[in-house]
Specification:
mainly alpha, 3 helices, 0% strand
Amino acid sequence: MTQDAVLDIARDAIYTIIITSAPLLLVSLIIGLIVSIFQTVTSIQEQTLTFVPKIIGVFVALIIFGSWMMNDLTGFMTNLWSNFSYYLSLG
């Protein structure tokens, strides 16, 4: 296996990780910003107020985007394993 092939696999893996995790991270970020603005306006400094809505939001996002995330990861792994003989022949 050549260095280029390894770098291609690593690049595809990192890209897949970023794209797959983006919906959950964005939901968590948006909820965090909304709760932070709410806390600033109301002067409430309760720590569970930031934690619980994020968990609920990420759980709902996981329910909504979970099948897409699993299909994306499964597609990446299927592509990786289907080209396994090609990667072996490079070395």
